[in-house]
């Protein structure tokens, strides 16, 4: 199977995830700025989740550019990633509606952690499918951001139990780490 079909399917799922997230947001009852204030937690949760979906979309695109062979295990690993990302609208809404409540913030962190692990597994399956000549293997190198992110998610989950704001700040920190697109794969493909 060619990677074009895999990429198109994944792009469609990510577009649906963003659509669901925005449709979950409710407009304020009033027509003043004061009417928006109660929606701030939901809006901030949406913005963070939108950034995360954008980061995954961008990096997934680069990941598939480095992929030479799509196998059954690559397909299943990709579906595994999409499954966890598809839970973002639920976790976003729950956290946004109960912004400082620990359990929704922990659930949000667990979805982020599971997505990061699923992305790592997809990378491993692509590397295995491409064999010793894997462009991705060479491009990833030490992958410090990929190793640091799950640790920060775990720290965020733990911190949330003490103070949800601290946990959410750690989730936002990981997003900031990845906001600048990862250029390792682009550089490897150019050579």
From TrEMBL:
Q: Which UniProt keywords apply?
A: Ion channel, Ion transport, Membrane, Potassium, Potassium channel, Potassium transport, Transmembrane, Transmembrane helix, Transport
Coiled-coil residues? none
| Pfam families documented for this protein | TMEM175
Where is the protein found, in the record's own terms? Membrane
Q: Which reaction does it catalyse?
A: K(+)(in) = K(+)(out)
* PANTHER family the record matches: ENDOSOMAL/LYSOSOMAL POTASSIUM CHANNEL TMEM175 (PTHR31462), ENDOSOMAL_LYSOSOMAL PROTON CHANNEL TMEM175 (PTHR31462:SF5)
Q: State the protein's name.
A: Ferrochelatase
């Amino acid at each position: 199977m060619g990677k074009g079909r895999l990429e198109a399917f994944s792009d469609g799922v990510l577009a649906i995830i963003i659509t669901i997230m925005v449709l979950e947001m409710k407009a304020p009852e009033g027509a003043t700025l004061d009417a928006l204030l109660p929606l701030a937690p939901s809006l901030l949760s949406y913005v963070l989740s939108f950034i995360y979906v954008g980061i995954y979309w961008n990096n997934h695109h680069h990941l598939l550019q480095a992929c030479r062979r799509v196998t059954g295990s690559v397909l299943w690993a990709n579906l595994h990633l999409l499954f966890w990302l598809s839970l973002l609208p639920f976790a976003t809404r729950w956290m946004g509606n109960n912004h400082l409540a620990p359990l929704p913030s922990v659930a949000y962190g667990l979805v982020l952690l599971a997505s990061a692990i699923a992305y790592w597994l997809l990378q491993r399956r692509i590397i295995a499918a491409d064999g010793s000549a894997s462009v991705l293997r060479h491009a990833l190198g030490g992958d410090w951001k990929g190793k640091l992110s799950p640790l920060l998610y775990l720290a965020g989950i733990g911190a949330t139990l003490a103070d949800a704001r601290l946990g959410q700040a750690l989730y936002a920190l990981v997003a900031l780490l990845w906001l600048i697109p990862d250029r390792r794969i682009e550089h490897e493909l150019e050579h």
